[in-house]
Structure formats: C-alpha cells, structure tokens
C-alpha cells in the first residue's frame, strides 16, 4: 500500500499526509515512474479537498512516497496544471522529479582531467556540485565500484550540468548506474556496476500466477549485412577553377587499399538470411586502413541480428499474496507462448498509485545473435502445431489452470472492490444520536443494526451530578462496536467551575472507557440561559481539556440556537459546532444539526431520542472517517 506525504520545503521535517487509503486521504490520479538509468518522476492530480490544491510551489514543495513503510521516491515539484472538468470539478495536476535532479542545478567548469581513476573523477564532479548548492541539495558519495581496464580516465569537462557530465563522461562510456539513497545523515549517491539482484528461484513473471500481459517485439531492421568501415577525416584542399575559390572536402579513411580494392565487407551468413543491407560504421580515431579493417572485423563479430524489446504487466501486492518487483532486479519469465524461459531485467516500473496491486514493467533490451535469431524464428514456426497438440492432450489441465486463474481474478476483484469502497465511501454513514439517562436501558446491538454509527453520551449535569446511565452506555457502545463521543451539560458560573467541569468530564469518561475505545470527542452543552460570561468561562473549559491532552480538534460546542449571539462563544477553539433547531435549519453556521428530540431508534424503548443530521465536511473528516 502506498502513502504520500507533502512538505512545504526540502527542510520541512513535519509535512502533511496527502494520500493514505487507510485514512481516506485520497487523490484523483497518481502515476509514479521508477527508472534504472534516469531521473524518476511522479504525476499527481488532486481536487479541492486535498492539501496540495493551491499549496504547491514549483521546485520548493517536496513529497515522499512510501510503499509499505519503505521510501521509494523523494521528489520536488515542477510545473502545475489547473483544470475544470466537464463535470464542473476543479483539479490541479503536479509533476515531481526525483531529488537526483538536484544534479541539474549545478554547472561544471572547463577542466582537463587525466591520471585520475573513475572513482576520483566521479567524486570531483560531485564536489563541484556540492560547492554550488545549499546543504539540502548536497550529496555524500557512497559506493563506487565502476572502473575500466586501466583504472584511469582522460576527459575534458565543459560547461554542462553535473548530471549531464556524469552521464556523458562516465555512464555512457564506462557503463554503470547512479543509485540515490536517503539516509538519516543525508542524501547519498552511489555509482555502481550492478543495480539489482537476480531472482533465479523466487518471484517469477509467470502465467497463471501474476502475469497479466506480456509483449515481445523482435526488431532485425538495424542489421547491416554489407559494412562500410570509415575512419578519421582526411582534409584536402580542392581548387575550384570556375571561380578561383578553395573548398575544403573531408573524405574519410577507408579499407580499399587493404581489402582488394573494396571499401566494404560482405557478411555472407547475414546476407543469406536478410539480403544485402548496406550500412556504415565510423571510427573517428583510426587513421590507418589496416587498423580500420581489424576494427571492422571485430565489430562484425559482435553485431547482433535483432533486438528484443519487452513490456510486461504483472500483479504485485507487497503486503500478502505477491512480492514487489524492483527496478534493476532480474526475474525469470515463464510463458512459453511468448518466449522461452529466461532471466529478464526490469529497467522501468510504472505504478498507478490508485491500483497498488498492478504495475507495468519495461524490460532491458536484449541483443540476439544470428544463430539465436534463426533458432527462435524456426522454432516459432513449429510451435503453433506443438502447442495445439499439447492443448488437445492436456485440456483438463488447462481447464484447471483457467479455474485457478478465475479464482485469482475473483480474489483480486474483491481487493479492487474493497479499495474502491475506501476511495468512494470513506466515511461512516448512518444515524447520529445523543443519549442520557432519560433513554433508559439501551440495546446497543439493536441500535447498531438499525444504522446508528455515532452515539454522543451524556456524562454529567454540571460538575457534581453524574448521569445515571453513562457507564452502562459506554460499555454498551464498546461491546457493539459503535463509535461514540461524550458531553457534559454546562452549568459553570466562573472559570474555576468551568475547569472543574472539563476535568470531571474527562476523568469520568476515561475511567468508564477503561482499556477499551476512548471517546472520539468531548462536548460542552451550552443551553442554560442563566449562565453569564459564557465566552471567558468556556475558554477556561477549553484550556483545561487541552491541558489534559485533548486538542481543540476533538472539542465540540453544543450551542442553543436562540442563545448563540448572547453567549458569543469563541467557536475557533472547537473542532466542530453542534446546534439544535427543531423544525427549521439553524440560523447560525454549524457542523452538526440536532433536528429532533422525538426520534425513534431500535433498541431505545423507554423514550424518544435526540437525532442529528447534515454533518459538515469538517465533522466527517474529524469524527466519521472509517
């Protein structure tokens, strides 16, 4: 399962969760692309309820994406896109790039580098980068195991970004991969030969288990069957007699003088398979025809007949049934209808954040020799008949495989339906009641079966008189699994009494709750018309609850509609405002409306019951999340 947390800047250590299906923090869309040889990127679309909407600053806002608690992406914001859909919904889409792109924010200076190991050259490039950027963009050099036969490089560095210099001067010439590691003491960058692990015996891409789709494209179109080798340029002045100007032509060294007058080399075995296909290869540093001929013959030996390009769709579920496929790792591919069993390396992974069970993978290109190409091509011509015969012989086995696969699909669909339910219906939806001793003995299981999702239980009348049924009611909702809150009827005449009522409400409720589920909020009932200086005294009530560990988000004020202006309570100190008004909607802003005192609910037979409706988005977010 994926979670996303946003940060106002790279140095913000607090952040805010913007996506977590478990707490119904949702987004409209999200696609994460992880790559083995480039900068990872992420695109996210949110609506107005998401924290990111209107709060993203390009290159400043950062996000972390975790999979089952493991950090898999840290990136910074790029360009935003604002949109209104045909349904009238306003959305914003943001692109993020991995913090590896910090290497784009620095520029190297011209330098001639020689008598230097690849490792020291890499460190030099990172040192130049670190000298130009703030601390949070700096990298610590970690593991380096890439080298060459001489363990020495000779390079000219010009005015390019650090990232471009590393790609051009090291990776493109020596191979290897950059690996970013976010550690407690900073960001590390490794330059390594092998990025991943070979999984020879575990977690294959296998038909009937996790393989949803697979495509293999074999491309022989880049093949050369008649090679024209070209060496360095030969500068030659040619005088144009018609206008007495001098043009400079630059033919290249060829092999005609050492190859019986021919400037090309035929490759008979490839011509037999594909015909004559001319193509040139250039070696700019070769000035001698004999050396050029040797280089050309070496190239012919290494030339491949075709290139394979793979794309795979597979299921993965890191929490239980499936393992997670990682970029850089190699896995067995098992589906003889597409290709023979073989190891393939994942070089890119495309993740739909809203579908954590399914991803698309790009596989590293494979080069095939002529012999392999011919064997595969001819084998494929026979495979149809072989598979047809095998299908007829093993129809029962195939039916079982189909049945097993259908069972997997059913299981997966159940997971999909569950996730959709979390995304589209993340709040408790049902009856909200408030009760006291006047409702008598309540059958809470019957109330739950009748749709009660939140019960607000009176604890006390003033500070000295306990409600006669509150202990029984708290035990009942806990046993039935009903979410509950508590309230006290306010009678305080001064700040000291207000604090005493707050403390007794908290202590009584928590003592009754014991080791079970605690109240979701604590409310003060303000409807006693004889109360004076209500604003100041209620602030004291707020303060005492806060001292006891109840933040303002979990404090609620029940204010009589007709006394709202008279009491002038500071509503900013409460997480929600609850107002009673029977027959007509309250005339003041509210988060919950008590619309009747004569409600009927199964399990409550001694009296009618107060019922509430129209919870605001704030009320739902604070107290009704599933």
UniProtKB/TrEMBL annotation:
<dbReference type="GO" id="GO:0009253">
    <property type="term" value="P:peptidoglycan catabolic process"/>
</dbReference>
<comment type="similarity">
    <text>Belongs to the glycosyl hydrolase 25 family.</text>
</comment>
<protein>
    <submittedName>
        <fullName>Prophage protein</fullName>
    </submittedName>
</protein>
<dbReference type="Pfam" id="PF01183">
    <property type="entry name" value="Glyco_hydro_25"/>
</dbReference>
<feature type="domain" description="Tail spike">
    <location>
        <begin position="156"/>
        <end position="375"/>
    </location>
</feature>
<dbReference type="InterPro" id="IPR002053">
    <property type="entry name" value="Glyco_hydro_25"/>
</dbReference>
<dbReference type="GO" id="GO:0003796">
    <property type="term" value="F:lysozyme activity"/>
</dbReference>
<dbReference type="Pfam" id="PF06605">
    <property type="entry name" value="Prophage_tail"/>
</dbReference>
<dbReference type="GO" id="GO:0016052">
    <property type="term" value="P:carbohydrate catabolic process"/>
</dbReference>
<dbReference type="GO" id="GO:0016998">
    <property type="term" value="P:cell wall macromolecule catabolic process"/>
</dbReference>
<dbReference type="InterPro" id="IPR010572">
    <property type="entry name" value="Tail_dom"/>
</dbReference>
<dbReference type="InterPro" id="IPR017853">
    <property type="entry name" value="GH"/>
</dbReference>
């Amino acid at each position: 399962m994926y979670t996303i947390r946003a940060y106002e800047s790279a140095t913000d250590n607090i952040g805010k969760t913007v996506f977590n299906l478990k707490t119904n923090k949702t987004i409209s869309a999200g696609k994460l692309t992880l790559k083995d040889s480039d900068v990872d990127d992420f695109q996210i679309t949110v609506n107005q309820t998401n924290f990111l909407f209107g709060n993203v600053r390009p290159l400043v806002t950062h996000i972390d994406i975790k999979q089952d608690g493991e950090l898999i992406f840290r990136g910074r914001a790029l360009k935003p896109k604002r949109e209104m859909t045909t349904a009238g919904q306003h959305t914003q889409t943001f692109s993020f790039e991995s913090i590896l792109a910090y290497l784009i924010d620095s520029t190297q200076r011209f330098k001639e580098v020689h008598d230097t190991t690849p490792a020291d050259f890499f460190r030099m490039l990172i040192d130049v980068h670190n000298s130009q950027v703030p601390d949070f963009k700096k990298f610590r050099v970690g593991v380096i195991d890439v080298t060459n036969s001489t363990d020495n490089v000779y390079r000219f560095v010009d005015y390019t970004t650090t990232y471009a210099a590393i790609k051009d001067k090291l990776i493109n010439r020596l191979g290897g991969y950059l690996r970013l590691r976010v550690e407690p003491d900073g960001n590390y960058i490794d330059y390594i030969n092998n990025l991943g692990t070979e999984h020879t015996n575990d977690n294959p891409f296998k038909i009937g288990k996790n393989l949803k789709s697979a495509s293999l494209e074999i491309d022989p179109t880049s093949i050369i069957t008649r090679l024209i080798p070209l060496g360095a340029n030969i500068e030659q002045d040619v005088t144009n007699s018609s206008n007495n100007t001098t043009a400079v032509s630059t033919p290249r060294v060829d092999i005609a003088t050492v190859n019986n007058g021919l400037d090309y080399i035929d490759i008979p075995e490839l011509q037999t398979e594909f015909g004559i296909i001319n193509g040139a290869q250039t070696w700019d540093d070769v000035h001698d025809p004999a050396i050029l001929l040797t280089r050309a013959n070496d190239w012919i030996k290494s030339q491949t007949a075709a290139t394979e390009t793979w794309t795979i769709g597979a299921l993965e579920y890191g929490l239980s049934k499936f393992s997670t496929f990682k970029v850089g790792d190699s896995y067995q591919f098992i589906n003889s209808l597409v290709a023979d069993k073989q190891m393939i390396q994942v070089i890119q992974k495309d993740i739909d954040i809203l579908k954590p069970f399914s991803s698309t993978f790009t596989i590293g290109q494979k080069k095939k020799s002529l012999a392999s190409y011919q064997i595969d091509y001819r084998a494929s011509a026979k495979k149809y008949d072989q598979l047809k015969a095998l299908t007829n012989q093993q129809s029962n086995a195939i039916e079982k495989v189909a049945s097993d696969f259908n069972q997997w699909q059913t299981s997966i669909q159940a997971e999909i339906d569950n996730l959709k339910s979390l995304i589209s219906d993340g709040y408790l939806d049902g009856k909200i009641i408030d009760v006291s001793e006047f409702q008598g003995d309540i059958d809470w299981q019957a109330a739950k079966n009748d749709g009660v999702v939140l019960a607000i239980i009176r604890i006390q009348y003033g500070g000295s008189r306990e409600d006669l049924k509150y202990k029984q009611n708290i035990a009942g909702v806990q046993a039935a699994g009903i979410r509950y809150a508590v309230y006290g009827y306010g009678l305080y005449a001064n700040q000291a009494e207000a604090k005493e009522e707050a403390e007794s409400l908290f202590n009584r409720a928590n003592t009754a709750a014991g080791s079970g589920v605690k109240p979701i909020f604590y409310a003060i009932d303000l409807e006693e018309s004889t109360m004076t200086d209500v604003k100041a005294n209620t602030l004291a009530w707020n303060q005492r609850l806060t001292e006891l560990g109840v933040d303002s988000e979990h404090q609620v004020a029940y204010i009589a509609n007709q006394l709202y202006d008279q009491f002038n309570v500071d509503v900013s100190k409460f997480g929600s405002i609850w107002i009673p008004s029977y027959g007509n909607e309250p005339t003041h802003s509210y988060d919950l409306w008590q619309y009747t005192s004569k409600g009927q609910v199964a399990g409550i037979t001694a009296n009618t019951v107060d019922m509430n409706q129209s919870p605001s988005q704030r009320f739902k977010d604070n107290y009704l999340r599933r």
